## 1
Amino acid sequence: MRAYLLKRFLQMIPTLLGITFITFCIIQLAPGNPAMLKLQMASQGEMADTAYAKQIIEQTKKLYGLDKPLPVQYLLWVKRVFTLDFGTSFKDHRRVLDKIAERLPVTIQINVISIFLVYLIAIPFGVYSATHPDTFADRTLTLAFFFLYSLPNFWVAVLLIMLFGGGEFWDVFPVYGISSINAESWPLWRQILDRLWHLALPVVCLTYGGFAYLSRLTRAELLEVIREDYVRTARAKGLSERVVIFKHAFRNALLPIVTLLAFLLPAMFGGSVIIESIFSIPGMGQLGFEAVLSRDYPVIMALTTISALLTLVGLLLSDILYAVLDPRIQLD
């Protein structure tokens, strides 16, 4: 196990460098640069062709280090990252880690609630459908979940705002921000209820597609396992159906579901650009979207690097859980 973990950690280094290098190159291929964008925002394009404007652009590039060759820029960035320094934002000159630290708790709150609800709903429905195949209930659940999975979340978000956010019907839930005005002066229990009240609609938009997919995946995997010989042998021994399903079959059906762990960690960090933008939630998704629009290279690189690292860690955790769930898998 130790040798395997050491090998995987060593493999992460070139993989992470490759991801960051490709991201760095793609960013440079995007039209425009922070210096030109700042000048256009300041002068609204009136000075774009003057000699003074070109001088300002060159000075801004020198300030941001954009006047150096691209390989030098990348190597300097890698050197700072090894000291856990992602630099300062081109947009407001704040430390990138400080901006991430402000947005990350909001995104984690939303995603933890969403992931918990996804598994809480999907696993029981998936097990029920697998143990009652081709029944009216199974067909109804299959149709309903396929219908939910096909709905785009931005359309559902707009629909929920119209129905429950004071659009044309009921004004039940807020559709802006994550807390009420002066909520920080309220008691803790009231702040928690207010936060849940504000996150109700975004959580619905982030949940329905996930549990629809996971439920169908659980059903398919459990159906395949139930047909195995060792499950029939367990039933022939006289074991109860509950013991056969949850002790013998369900454990092996979990292997493909565990693979989703590789994507849960970066999802919890990255957030949802569309949902956070629609509901004006100050999370990681909105931060990444704003960074792309403003050509904020340090923020983009920081978000990409951390997401890639969390994906690699998720893959490692998935492999370890494979060995825990199935003793036949030997990591060494």
## 2
Amino acid sequence: MLIVGIIIGFGIGYFTPSLVASDDYDVIKARGSIIVGTNTNWPPFEIFNTTSNQIEGFDIDLAELVADYLNVTTQWIDMDFDNLIGACQAGTIDMIASATFITAARCAVLQPLTWYIRTNEVVVTKANSTLVIDELADLVGLDVGVQTGTVEDEELSDITNMEATLTRYPVVETMFQALDTGTLDAIYVDEPIVGLYSTVYSVKIIFTVTAPPTAFYIRYGSDRLSAAINSAIAEGFADGTVDALIAKWFG
């Protein structure tokens, strides 16, 4: 089940004091574009359409909505998910739009904006698997795959004795291929992406975990930029645009 919502004010301990002297809003307006980082291996949030040679997906459309609100264009940079936070910290990108959960570790170094959707994390196996688990710790000793740098990666890495048989994949499609060939017993991913890959591979969900909310991230200290982006998303909810995008990409 998808849960959407707005946290007004967002004053629940996620923010830290400003770390940047100038506001990136002015830089973006002067440049005429916002540079957005994503990883196009996480459909339906973001995917590279090989037919149109275009990046598309829910996060892509939502980021374009933000750019329209700012009256600028969007420059997209596609990179491994694990590199997005460092790229935003370094200023290579202005914003992360890549199905990024809100976590304490990420909020320590980057500013999360208004959260816009909440999904589930799921353990997926081949459809003919007999595996049954009651908690994530039951995966210890099994060959399990995660995408590098994700919350799923962090959660499984924190389980004692899990590391020995945990395999990290920068490309999620490779992970589904490994599951299909029997290299992996299970994978741990965001639930929405299973829909697409279930049309290619015979898989099933055997365990579900409620995930943190999802948000865009920018650098701290850009109060005008954060206010503008939050306003864009809030207006998108108010006029039904975000709901329409959810229906478009998640059905």
## 3
Amino acid sequence: MSFTLSERNDTIIALATPQGVGAIAVIRISGKDAIRVCNEVFFGKNLEEQASHTIHLGTIRDGEKIIDEVLVSLFKGPRSFTKENVVEISTHGSSYIINQVLKLFVRKGVRLAKPGEFTQRAFLNGQFDLAQAEAVADL
């Protein structure tokens, strides 16, 4: 899998849990703008002022419309899986809610991640070696 330099600098998003399996879904965002973009649609606390490795309760909103009440986990780079800023949004597992959240972030300029892209970023950023990256891919 190969990516252009501009793609490697994009902020990316993907569903991190299997769709339709559980009551809760986790949506992961990675990139330098992950926290800033999430802060634009998260209502609860100012995420940019919060410490790394913390969880915050609030709502994700599209304008005035509440999409869901969520927990947002913050991981500031380089202390994250990809060594970039990472946000994990725990939403209810409804396909409708998941799709609404993904569409909202895409409209905000976040790109849908390609398969394996989070792991590739972790590898390229020195999080682990090639053997470890292949082991993750095997999972």
